[in-house]
Specification:
- The chain is mostly beta strands.
- The chain is built from no helices and eleven strands.
- The chain has strands at residues 3-7, 10-12, 18-25, 31-39, 46-52, 57-59, 67-72, 77-82, 91-99, 104-106, 110-114.
- Strands 2, 4, 5, 6, 9, 10 and 11 form a seven-stranded mixed sheet that branches.
- Strand 4 and strand 5 form a beta hairpin.
Length: 116
């Protein structure tokens, strides 16, 4: 069982920045893919960004150029640097980890609120 613990959420003004962190523990198995999803009130959870162990990245349309995902494979940690935040980025952000055997795990989420 993989445990994912997120940190770094909070309240920020439009145009501001936040850095989310997620640390995975509880497994010796290598993690294939780590990423961030978000869920705004009344909307479905959707992918924000993800990074595989070989460095391949993917971003949802609308965050490229503002958000950057990075990962420390040796520490099973993933980060999401979010710049130029907009009110529409307000959501609960969830960390996600996928093992090579296909098992998927989720963190409990961290709230990001972008408001003046």
């Amino acid at each position: 069982q993989v445990q994912l613990v997120e940190s770094g959420g909070g309240l920020v003004q439009p145009g501001g920045s936040l850095r989310l962190s997620c640390a995975a523990s509880g497994t010796d198995l290598p993690i294939f893919r780590m990423g961030w999803y978000r869920q705004a009130p009344g909307k479905q959870r959707g992918l924000v960004a993800a990074r595989t162990s070989d460095g391949s990245t993917s971003y949802v349309v609308g965050v490229e150029g503002r958000f950057t995902i990075s990962r420390e494979n040796a520490k099973n940690t993933v980060f999401l640097q979010m710049n130029n935040l907009k009110p529409e980025d307000t959501a609960v952000y969830y960390c996600n980890a996928e093992l090579y055997n296909g098992m998927i795990f989720w963190g409990k989420g961290t709230l990001v609120t972008v408001s003046s």
